[in-house]
Amino acid sequence: MAYSLLERINSPQDLKQLPAGQLAPLCEEIRAFLIESVSKTGGHLSSNLGTIELMVAMHRAFTTPSDKIVFDVGHQCYTHKLLTGRRQQFDVLRKLNGLSGFPSPRESEHDAFIAGHGNTAISVAIGMARAKKLKNEPGKVIALVGDGAFTGGMVYEGMNNIDTLNNLIVVLNDNKMSISKNVGSLSRYLTVLRTNPEYNRAKANTESILSAIPLVGAPLVRALQGGKALLRRGLYHSTMFEEMGFQYLGPVDGHDVIKLTELFRNLHHQTAPVFVHAVTVKGKGFKPAEENPGEFHGVSSFDPSHALDPDVAPAASFSTCFGQHLETLSESRTNVCAITAAMKYGTGLQYFYRHFPERFFDVGMAEQHAVTFAAGLASQGMLPVVAIYSTFLQRAYDQMIHDVCLMDLDVVFAVDRAGLVPGDGETHQGIYDPAFFRQIGIPVYSPCNYAELTYWLEQLLDQGHGPRAIRYARGGEPESLSALGCSKQPYDVYASESPAKTAIVTYGTLTAEVLKAAELLRQQGVSVDVYKLVQINPLPDGLCEELTRYDHILFAEECIENGGIGGSLGAALSEYRWPGHLTLRGVRSGRAIPHASVAELREVLGLDAVSLANAIERD
Question: Known catalytic residue: 395?
């Protein structure tokens, strides 16, 4: 397809020069481009199709980077990237050395802040807006926030601190609520009126004059403001935002690019923090995505002409294996509850929900609440299973310590997307959970295949006490690991044919690379034994005694080296006064992880088979 208008846009300045009558056709070209491009590369589709007109209007009305656009979450930034000169890089979206799927200040000056997790934009925007005030800098700070973010508490913490920042604009991208016809006409009229610069000046002057009247001035202003609040409550129920200090505008049509542009331009004259409520359609313009926005939220490549519905979790994956087995186990275990944070399908819990809806709880983007809620359930004899992506579970670290561990409550953490995660890059890596579980003393199991996952999940439900965790990778099990089955032991040893003085220790799906490394070394005449852990914290009984017979141990893990399980092994071996040499291979602390496939990430980080074999040879 030809993109005659889009190909003329190489910067926001080009967009500003475009005649107003060509904005709607431009939006349709962007929509077609995104469908074609993402169908080839994979990525986030529904969220981006729903925000095209909003982004065009923002870049038409504001000027980045002096004006700052902050995303929450950043997966809706594709149109922003197209309008800021990155169109020709979309063929390598989310690929190694290619375009990030999220905002990245290292990638462009137009990206104000990195954004991979939810609920953050308002707090970030308030900080930026306050900094502009302190430095006497011009420009606006605009936070684009999806309605899903309002299920997390940090949004409200931020809104409670907006003060009188008249350079702050919050845009709610609401793709769930509809505009009532009865209320909409008057509400739209009031929005047009209240965004008019003359209205704002008259409002400010009137309140200033009334306030100056001795004795009665201040009460008159309060009465006037109270009367307006009552009217607004009856019209569009917006008093929560107003009472927090916002000037509330909306609901507005989030797909009317002309009116949106006019609205945003008028906000250059705002006298208070502004909250714009824009109603959009998620997946706009692509019928399969409109009908199934969740399934087209994050997709692999697909054929748009056949409108295939891609699954959030593949038919065969650790997530679906976990979800299906939890459903089966919970048939006879009536105290088991399942909790997720806005990721029912991503964590495979749709199976549990289908049969036990009364015991299933999706708390929204509220990981902290999810963990403390689980603690409350556990304190009353229930057995909650909290299924959260590793990268998002980081947000509930304090709740795990204070609300679960201190009372030694029976909470099972099912940690999805553990280890290296493809495509999303540095914001979504599951490389910290082994370290923080180890720090607070939570037992952790890390299966390498489905057989181990199903066995150890049942063990954790039936035989555990206190908090415990099971962690597993994104995607499916490698064939080489499926063949290993499950020994039902906390660790397994794969010994070489000849006596070995070197051992490689690992866990999870990285076992596949370690076994390849051992084979490479065998072909070179080097004997290496492989230890595959399932129980990673605490270290299994007897493991260290066995390992002390080796001269050299290489510990490889998809976790940070500083504080990881390899460090735990090193401390344990030192207690045995082991004289050998321990080599740790993990992720160096402070190192940004690029967006790439897992195989490419392992190569970059030195965790692929060749690199691990070379580490043995060098040492």
Answer: yes
